[in-house]
From TrEMBL:
The keyword Transferase does not apply. This is L-rhamnose mutarotase. PANTHER family: L-RHAMNOSE MUTAROTASE. It comes from Aeromonas encheleia. Its main location: cytoplasm.
Length: 104
């Protein structure tokens, strides 16, 4: 199991809609994430800065990266791009964090 964490952000004023869309995550997207080895995927919001902290456990880096090539993932990115800073391909702007401590 590989632990990954990354930061993203949501546009100010879009926090409620961001949460609503994730409360109603598409079943096909959830299944695709699981099929690509993702588990324990959580996203946390710092409401003061509008930063999102995401944590996911994956089985394999290549399988995780392949999620980005699925039609359902690209559709989700398009659905979310109005709520958060995004790249031209609609993927959310994010930066990976480096693990410095883990209490197993």
């Amino acid at each position: 199991m590989i632990r990954k964490a990354f930061l993203m952000s949501v546009h100010p004023g879009c926090e409620t809609e961001y949460r609503r869309r994730h409360d109603e995550i598409w079943p096909a997207l959830a299944e695709t994430l699981k099929a690509h080895g993702a588990s324990n995927y959580s996203i946390f919001l710092d409401s003061k800065s509008c930063q999102l902290f995401a944590y996911v456990e994956i089985e394999d880096e290549a399988r995780w990266e392949a999620v980005a090539d699925t039609a359902i993932c690209r559709e989700w990115w398009g659905y979310m791009k109005s709520l958060m800073p995004s790249h031209p391909d609609d993927s959310p702007i994010s930066r990976e964090l480096v693990s410095v401590f883990c209490l197993p």
